[in-house]
């Protein structure tokens, strides 16, 4: 029994060291961000989205891009229809987008981007912006990205918000999660000179980076995380641009949310298995901080999955100790979960109050109360992903009907 407890303590301590690293970086969120100065030079952008059965929402996305506060002659909108069984291509054409047809089969978003970049890199664009088809793009997105590129960025990530936060407690939790992640991960890294997390929408890439990479070449179902790893291996920082905002429709069903997030978890672990070794080798070269930080991000996914083992060992030791051991275990765990629940609800409420200018909408109350469950659900998803890979990408249907997060003109 003592051996089990010591094993749990040692493994738990090692995992806590990883948590301390992320906690230390998160402290930089308290530092004030300095906005990028306005750029005089205007770059030419290609705005790209891979679309699979997005007939309902593709028109709203294209309209939002067309309303950019940016010279209209300096950007073009491209839609990559793939595996569609609806009229996505027809709807995209009707709203003024150019169509990129894929000559080869597409099994994931990375395949579509790979084939699109082959065609677009020959057309003289300075940078490429990638979005999901259900997005609504803030009117200043391209302008703020242009400022970041003028300041020195080669890869940049904008802020992502839920467009339908008040549709259900699940979409509300996504909204709170995004705010939490942007504050303690992206903002913190932005102010201390590290890379933001490049998620699959609302980011921009300079042509030079793609040229150095030989185009867009990702093979996992987490093309965004894999591209981030490739940038870290190049020594390229992903700049954080909080004023470049994308409104993204989130799942309203907890079951769909679990499927989506399991794919994210599995994809990140795939990237870890594929690139972690090379990232560690990169640590002796210039700009090693980007590789080191992204290595910790990848390790963190595995650490989260492994965090159940110290708890399991402690429970086993308690069972072997008899009724008294089980009672003590239940008592300690009960106090822990009460503390966890209160803290997470408090954080969710603070983030919502800040976002809503001091008011909590009635439709967000359930999201705040259930946010601890939403966050705790990441752990079993990581554990499942550790032992069983998700190899196929499944589309999530969007309707584009609710846009409660998007400010009106």
TrEMBL record:
SUPFAM superfamilies: Nucleotide-diphospho-sugar transferases (SSF53448)
Keyword Transmembrane: yes
InterPro entries for this protein: Glyco_trans_2-like, Nucleotide-diphossugar_trans
The keyword Transferase is annotated on this UniProt entry: yes
EC number in record: 2.4.1.-
Gene3D superfamilies noted in UniProt: Spore Coat Polysaccharide Biosynthesis Protein SpsA, Chain A
Top-level EC class as recorded in UniProt: transferase
Positions of the Glycosyltransferase 2-like domain: 130-344
Transmembrane segments: 6-30, 294-320, 332-354, 366-387
Keywords per UniProt: Glycosyltransferase, Membrane, Transferase, Transmembrane, Transmembrane helix
Source domain of life: Bacteria
GO MF entry, a single one: glycosyltransferase activity
Family: Belongs to the glycosyltransferase 2 family.
Name of the protein in question: Beta-monoglucosyldiacylglycerol synthase
Organism listed in the record: Anaerotignum neopropionicum
